[in-house]
Amino acid sequence: MDVLVIGAGIVGAACAQELAAAGLSVGILEKSEPAFGATAAGMGHILVLDDSEAQIRLTAYSRYLWHSLAPSDRTEFRTTGTLWVASNEQEMRAIEVRRDFYRTYGVDAEVVGRDQLYELEPALVPGLAGGMRIPSDAVLYPPTATTELLDRAFHSGAKYFRSEIKGVGPHAVELMNGETMEATHVVLATGADATKLLPSLRIRRRKGHLAITDRLPRPLIRHQLIETSYLQSAHGSDQASVAFNLQPRSTGQLLIGSSRQFESGREVELPIVERMLEQAVAYVPALRDCLVTRIWTGFRAATPDGLPLIGPYPNVPGLILATGHEGLGITTSLATAKLVRQHITGAKAEIDPAPYLPDRLFPAT
Amino acid sequence: MKQILINGKPQEIEEDASLLVVLLNNGLNAQRLSVSGANRWGICAMGICFECRVTVDGKVVRACQTSCRNGMEVWLDAR
User: Fold this and answer.
1) Cα–Cα distance measured from residue A86 to residue A230, given in angstroms and rounded to the nearest whole number
2) For A64-98, how does the pLDDT look when each residue is reduced to its tens digit (9 = 90+)?
3) Do residues A191 and A329 lie in contact, with contact meaning Cβ atoms separated by under 8 Å?
């Protein structure tokens, strides 16, 4: 086998379809079901984020790849656009700087004033200052998007194995049943679980809560809405933080996020949910009358610098990492696959792979 | 006499009766439609499964967690 991809979340599925389409023989190893981990737990946004130059390059490239892929109806892909909401003049000034940054990287972004904000989204609470609209951002349903990528991989000849991994070695993986599978390349795409195989990886499990409403009789919002201070919440504080993020789903439901915390179990924590929902109602008061039908948690794979680990693992020949995507794995899965392909076949991706190489987080030896 | 409207039809009730029980007693075994249009019905009767959602006075609620009040207007989208 040319490549074994470990993990059938959206990142593993994207890598498998990219490598199989390149003509390589590909095996996918998954311990439970496809899209069972962070992929199923996440919001499913395809958005360009501007936290760093490396991040905006990766997310803009990946969003372009999603639009080029033209996902089918079952993925519930919708180009809703993102509306970043500014609550005061200070946030408005910050948003103008961000608009210029987006445009520097060729990403369409427009500042909207107070009046236009309420024309676009009448359900927003009165008294906000304005916002920034990113028209080409999208949302999708990650489990079916993963299925779609896997189907493409199978169409190109990829094989699926349901098996748990005990260890990874040079050009090989050891299965729980004692068998060894050999491959020229092994791609590790197991999200936050990557540390189970490689304890020295600097990845922390960053918990998030989400809530979803019943289908609403008529749409309340059209864009994905995010508060401007979302990026502060996304930064590496050890304190639990919540930030307003509201998504209209194609089913008529609303997906309500977001929370971030380290060192916590899988259980739903009502104090965090309460803060998250209060924040959502503060921005969209009509949410108070919507029925939340499900609340769940998931774990992001967080790295110290907020960028994923994509590329060769320094200590094991043939092993390539594709993990550490934090809250952006749905967006960045396709660009990750292009970068992994570059590491394996040499076919150039359209962005520089250097900022995402895992060896940046290993001390020089 | 106390009554509520179920899909526009008057129905006599005991005040504070469980709305889900009233619906079931009236043969309305399915309360709502799924995304794909299939009939769905309450399973747990204790507020956990969210399958008995109905619209009461314009607001979506769980029938099993709702007590009947005189004049209440209930709409079900199940067939």
Assistant:
1) 11
2) 999 999 999 999 999 999 999 999 999 999 999 99
3) yes
Q: Which residues in chain A are contacts of B50 at CB distance < 8 A? A: 214, 291, 293-294
Phi/psi for A184 (5° steps) reads -60, -40
Contacts of A214 in chain B (CB under 8 A): 50, 53, 60
Q: A-chain residues within 8 Å CB-CB of B32?
A: none
Q: How far is residue B11's CA from residue A171's CA, in Å, rounded to a whole number?
A: 72
pTM here? Answer: 0.91
- ipTM, 2 dp: 0.73
Our CA-based measurement puts residue A32 at a distance from the nearest CA of chain B, in whole angstroms, of 25
Question: Cβ distance A333 to A75 under 8 Å?
Answer: no
Q: Enumerate residues 6+ apart whose C-beta is below 8 A from A211.
A: A255, A256, A257, A273, A276, A277, A292, A294, A295
Under 8 Å between Cβ of B20 and B52 = yes
Could you tell me if A246 and A258 are in contact, meaning their C-beta atoms sit under 8 angstroms apart? no
The number of beta carbons lying within 10 Å of the beta carbon of residue B3 is 14
Q: CB contact, 8 Å: B33 with chain A?
A: no
DSSP codes of every residue in B15-29? TT-BHHHHHHHTT--
Distance CA B77, CA B34 (A): 10
Can you state the angle between helices A329-345 and A142-155, rounded to 10 degrees? 20
Ranges of H-type helices in chain A: 10-21, 38-41, 53-69, 89-104, 114-120, 142-155, 194-197, 230-234, 270-283, 329-345
Tokens of A99: 């608009």
Each residue's pLDDT tens digit, A268-307: 999 999 999 999 999 999 999 899 999 999 999 999 999 9
Contacting A residues, span 197-256, partner chain B, CB-CB under 8 Å: 214-215, 251
Alpha-carbon distance A219 to nearest alpha carbon in chain B (angstroms): 15
